[in-house]
Amino acid sequence: MEMHADPEMPVPPAGSFDPSRAADPDPSVWRRMWDSLRRDKVALVGAVIVLAFVLVSAFAPLLAPFDPNNQFNDGLTAMGAPLPPGHPYLLGTDDLGRDLLSRLIYGARVSLIIGVVANGLAMIIGVAIGAIAAYAGGWVDMVLMRFTDTMMAFPVLLFAIALIAITSPSLQNIIIVIAILYWTTTARIIHGMVLSLKEREFVEAARALGATGPRILWLYIMPHLLSVIIVYTTLGVATTVLVEASLSFVGIGVPLPTPTWGNMINEAQNYYHSDPWMMVFPGVAIMATVLGFNLLGDWLRDTLDPMQSGGH
Amino acid sequence: MEIHGNGAEPQPLIRVQELRTYFPTSRQGVLGRRGSVKAVDGLTFDIYRGETLGLVGESGCGKSTTGRTIIRLIRATSGSVWYDGRDLTKVSEGEMRRLRQKLQIVFQDAYASVSSRMRVQSIIGDALAIHRLASGRARSNRVAELLEVVGLDPRFASRYPHEFSGGQRQRIGIARALAVRPEFIVCDEPISALDVSIRAQIINLLEDLQGEFRLTYLFIAHDLAVVRHICDRVAVMYLGKFMELSPNQQLYDHPLHPYTRSLISAVPVPDPDLEDTRQRIILEGDVPSPVSPPSGCVFHTRCPIARERCAREVPEWRQYAPRHWVACHYAGEPLIESNSGEPDQVILARSPEPVGSA
User: Fold this and answer.
1) How high is the mean pLDDT of chain A?
2) Shortest alpha-carbon distance between residue A311 and chain B (Å)
């Protein structure tokens, strides 16, 4: 395969992914991606975890054995302590006698919603700011990118806690806060890519045709950013799941009784010694999901990169 | 303003006056002065309706920049480009976008000049969409029609650029330029990147299209052999300036500028007997830097007939014969060898150092 690596492309940002080399796509990419995925066992594990996560979230009402918020009369020991894993509560119960497995399954839903929506919004903001700044250039570029730098300078988690504390913890607010705090890296990466893409001759050709700036960005430049957007969205879901868990853990996440993995761990704090499974299961769920998205993201990064760099 | 020949001349489609395009260079040191690359340095010429004006010169002499400045892909530093009663260097962005329908370009690298993520249908169709020339079904039909015009199978519309050969891609580039029914096309070395076997096909295609659609070309090339075949008039460029501009045949038969003569002497002659007698004029040294071009005549550092005056005075752009323009104090003089006449007055071709540089 012929490589069209462009020597004038700027040095990519931190990490091994070189966005410039992903700029030229190949239309028959899906087939080859599947072939590549079958051969890469580690990535396959990631893909399976992600798929399982998505399916569990989608079909939570069908999969969960019980109502996640029902406090069962037989859900606690005679002493009022949570039940260990067994029958009928496969993973045991929590301190209020609710079924842990059902809460875990419904918790995946919250994580997925936050992961997809918050991350999607962050991507839209980041791509828009990065692309517009780079394409417009001049003072627009200066203002937007200095604003991005400023946002990057904030300690994100503390800022998120402060923001949610002055509003109120709700699913909607958490999504908004994550979206307005996690777009900066994307903006930087897209900014760099658009800076080099806009110097390419096909953009000059579009200008020669009389295309307007927005049209060039949308129809000519955007398709070249897609693979990078896919990669960073995937990796971003992992970060977002962790952020939600952190916020819920400190008590300003999605309000109870809605189960999330973060607030399940929070509730388990007092029982980590006597009933460790209360903390272990949501912990493992978070870890597995983050790992799955990271493995899939890494593979996408490696795969979309050489596969898309050119013709035949 | 110059008078171009007699009253029987065709109408100029584009009139270029004192066009300059300078690119700023980075500062030398923190407090250093910003220099500039004088890519296009004071060009004045007309492009007549229906003609092919050739533009030749070595790489880096500003040919492409000239073409791109005329259709405002690069903003001019000063000067004007008159088209249809308007100065293209002054019209608003919106107005310019509208005018681009009539002013097109075909690029040297046909692959780099199309988005690898777009199908041929979109590549050509977007030209129609931008100027609202056709939509929906009519657009697809027009794309198919254009592909046929440039000699490609209309079914190729659903393919991506990498599925084509170099020559086919250049045909796509030509179809895109043609889609908006332009009057004027800048052909920026459209065949330089192609296999020799394909070049003639593309040249013939461009010639056919010119006849069919009454196109006017500015044909940029770096060798005279190609230009000789297709052009009506030829301009020879060196370091951002025109050295000579004349009708095609006259340029070959009676070149006036020593630089033109050296270029012509470099073109091989297909007749072996004539080829044996061909005398090459080999220029010494390299092209000087356009950041600090030589004083006086920019060519004097390499000119075989340069004299002391050439380093001092910038030669006037003058009409030496009808329709034959030249910028040389000693235009048409024989190329003197060192043993003839007064050697101390003749500065022979020497090192490229600019004399008395600014």
Assistant:
1) 79
2) 5
DSSP-assigned letters across all residues of A225-248: HHHHHHHHHHHHHHHHHHHHHHHH
For residue B9, what are the contacts with CB-CB under 8 A and spacing of at least 6?
B48, B323
Q: How far is B178 from chain A (nearest CA, A)?
A: 10
Contact: B117, A208; criterion CB under 8 Å:
no
Out of B126, B161, B163, closest to residue A209 by CB: B126
Please, which residues have CB within 8 angstroms of residue B196's CB and are 6 or more apart in sequence?
A: none
Question: Tokens representing A13?
Answer: 């940002």
Residues of chain A in contact with residue B104, where contact means CB-CB under 8 angstroms, are: 208-209
Here the CATH number for the domain that contains residue A227 is 1.10.3720.10
Within 304-333 of B, beta carbons closer than 8 Å to A belong to: none
pLDDT tens-digit map of B15-34: 999 999 999 887 666 666 77
Q: Identify the pLDDT of residue B44.
A: 92
As to burial, measured by CB atoms within 10 angstroms (0-12 exposed, 13-18 middle, 19+ buried), residue B130 is buried
Contact criterion met (CB < 8 Å) for A204 and B113: yes
What percent of chain B has pLDDT above 70? Answer: 89
Distance CA B288, CA B45 (A): 24
**How many Å apart are CA A63 and CA A258, to the nearest integer?**
17
| Helix pair A184-197, A222-249: axis angle to 10 deg | 170
Reported as a pLDDT band with limits 50, 70 and 90, residue B338 is very low
In a domain, A140, yes or no: yes
Nearest to B63 by CA among B225, B198, B190: B190
CB < 8 Å to A310, chain B:
116, 162
Which residues of chain A neighbour B127 with C-beta distances below 8 Å?
Answer: 209
Hey, what amino acid is at A288?
A: A
The total domain count for chain A is 1
CB contact under 8 A, B160 and A27: yes
Residue A268, SS3 per DSSP? helix
Q: Indicate yes or no: pTM above 0.90.
A: no
List the domain range (segments joined by +) for residue A251.
55-61+93-307
The reply to whether CATH 2.60.40.290 applies to domain B12-257 is no
End-to-end CA distance of chain B: 29
For B117, the closest of A201, A224, A312 (CB atoms) is A224
Question: Complex ipTM, two decimals?
Answer: 0.83
Interchain contact A220–B (C-beta under 8 A): yes
Smallest Cα distance from B275 to chain A, Å: 40
| Coil, helix or strand at residue A93 | strand
Is the bond preceding residue B352 a cis peptide, omega within 30 degrees?
A: no
Domain ranges of chain B: 12-257, 258-358
